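Researcher: Here's the sequence for the chain we discussed earlier.
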Amino acid sequence: NSGESQEVLALLPAARRLGLPLIAICGNPTSSLAQAADVVLDVSVPEEACPLGLAPTASTTATMALGDALAIALLEERGFSTEDFALLHPAGAIGRRLLRVEDVMHTGAELPLVSEQAALKETLVEITSKRLGVTAVVGAGGALVGVVTDGDLRRGLERAADIRLLTARDLMTTAPKTIGPGALAAEAVAVMERHAITSLFVLADDSRRPRGVIHLHDLLRAGVV
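Model: Thanks. This is the structure I predict for it:
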């Protein structure tokens, strides 16, 4: 804060040789550091909080506040987005909050799918083998028309006169809740909580075709919940 620390001043010749612009943050605008700088940001304080007036206390707080202000100003000037933050900060609690649905969803062979005409046995096998407690039901064009969950199976069996005739169309819940691949994983949690469900099918951006599925357990494992 004094602008006279020898370990800092020793770097000045190298900075000059490299042609680096120098912005000094210090509490003494007449210090050696300030005199050598292109821009001086004065963070001087009337007195330190230390009762002896020796330990840097108020001055360190002022310096941190200025550093935060500079960071926010630069963030706004550069248009720094949530996507930029997620790219540069993928780990830790903040990184988990910025995970996208596409980062944790099941795709390919892990995606449970049956046709509307699929028999009860085929539907049951698909739900069981994919171990997500749900399967998507797709129409002739591959678009999502419904979902069948474990609960749908039980309710269908209870009301059916002849279970051998049941198809996925008979069992499915129509107009299921869905989400896009680019949505935040935290948003998926909110949708599940709001509708008391444990899974969401992920639709391709330009169609109703299922691209993936995300389960509450995936979000728990990823630390989003």
